[in-house]
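Appendix B. Raw example, untouched.
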Amino acid sequence: AEIPVDMIRDLLLDGRLTAGELIIADLKLQNLSAAVRARDGILRLDPLQARLYGGDYRGVITIDATGPKALLTLDQQLDSVQVAEILRGLYGSDRLGGSVSLQVSGTGAGNTQTELLKALTGNVAMSLSDGVYRGMDVGYEVQRALALVRKEAAPSAPAKMETPIRALSFAGQMANGVLGTDQLSAEIPFFRLAGKGGINLLELALDYQLNAQVLEKDDTTAGQNLSDLVNATIPITNRGPLASPRVGVDMKNMVTNTIRDTLQDRAREALLKSLGGATTESPPATQTTDGAAGSAPEESTPAAEPEEPKADSAKDLLKRGLRDLLTPKEPQPEG
């Protein structure tokens, strides 16, 4: 779409625009009102407000057409808008649902929509509540991946493939046609998500790498299947077209990162046992004042002559040193 810079340069306006209903880019705005001013090649809509899919839209738009390329400055805000309606109108998709609030501020220069998107720089902040991602159950996908790693039978598929989103928020910056963020966080059943990635505004595609931390044990069957991974981190990817991205478990990183910690613990325990040291699973028995732990007192016998201490061999010293390195240290009191 071309920005009508020649027409803007000739405009002399001071008025108000109202509409009961207005359709722009397949989005239906209601109760639209805007103050419109144009003079000396600068067009400004301020304030601009409307009802939009159960929520409110407010914004300020300025187009400076005094130079060879139009300079766009915008400050936009959505409050409690149903995101599924927006995605359905723009992309014919309802994969993501929920109430979204959004703030966008930025500037860019260009005489076409594509030029403006490439040049647009600014900040974006978004939050989603009471949301749902349709088409995939992330908890089920994680359980299925774990079953594959453990060589167990796959869990039964849920009746409805969707993931409730209790809360989601992110903040990012726009540059070179990409909205990038390293401050994404969300909470879904059994997991807390954090990650980073970006949305290509020109190709309408996204690419995010997320880490899902397993929350405390849940009494449901799905929660019990994840009980031995509480506080562990599962890597998840979210890639593809904006209208229908693919969410999946990053199997390679899950095996190398998540399972590695468990294997390290088991290997340490086995090595400690072979060296004759106490493991964290089997603490040494405590001695009672009467002799061996839990035993009855024995009759006194004449003390044996003390033997000369034997010098430790190099092998004994090595085993003792390894035990000291592998045995978890007790925290020292402060002070």
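End of appendix B.
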